[in-house]
Write a structure and sequence with these properties.
- This protein has ten helices and ten strands.
- The protein is an alpha/beta fold.
- The protein has two domains: 165 residues, 3-Layer(aba) Sandwich (Rossmann fold), CATH 3.40.50; 67 residues, no CATH class.
Length: 241
Amino acid sequence: MAPLIDPILTVSDLHAGYDGAPVVFGVSLQVMPGELVAIVGANGAGKTTTMRSICGLIHPLKGRILFEGHDISEMPAHEILKLGISYVPEGRRIFGKLSVRKNLYLGAYTEKSHIEVKRRMEELFEIFPVLRARANQVAETLSGGEQQMLAIARGLISKPKLLMLDEMSLGLMPTMVEKMMATITSINRAGATVLLVEQMVQEALEIAHRGYVIQNGKIIQQGSASQLMDSEEVRKAYLGM
């Protein structure tokens, strides 16, 4: 009998919002080690609020968030990062006036060994060859797709146990979205556990193992990616079928 594996992340009955006004109402989800899990839904459904709660940028009004069995619900964001959760927010949020290389160094601030940081940077340049070519270029001069790659690379350089990606397709051309999804798949296959938030429902479910559909701050459906793709409700509401 195969040993039971505990979830790396468990969110239970999460209520969260801003200035005491909830935006998310009772969200519960799990991510297993090695999975690529998608939270999908329309803009304003509560996806980003859920992600910001997990990484400590806001604290739950109610509910619990467990990471590797430890309650992180009230922990500050920098402590959660040290535990191994890396959040790449929507809108890239790179340091535009700094070079690609300096952006990556800032992403690795929790690692004290300069040699280890350089080794990780070389690994990322293998995944994102364009960043090697642009290493000394000011980040704001990169294309939208290149900036998104830099944002993901900066999230990866801390060697997270869980990589959380928020709306990676935002503002990208369709061909670049396809490339971005392929990159996320490769990162997951290389061993990274990924939680992906995306309003491009079909594209996200095509690469995910499992998914959660969020609407008006509540999970309305969950299951394997293929089950959600086959769901008549999901197909009508999000896939235009």
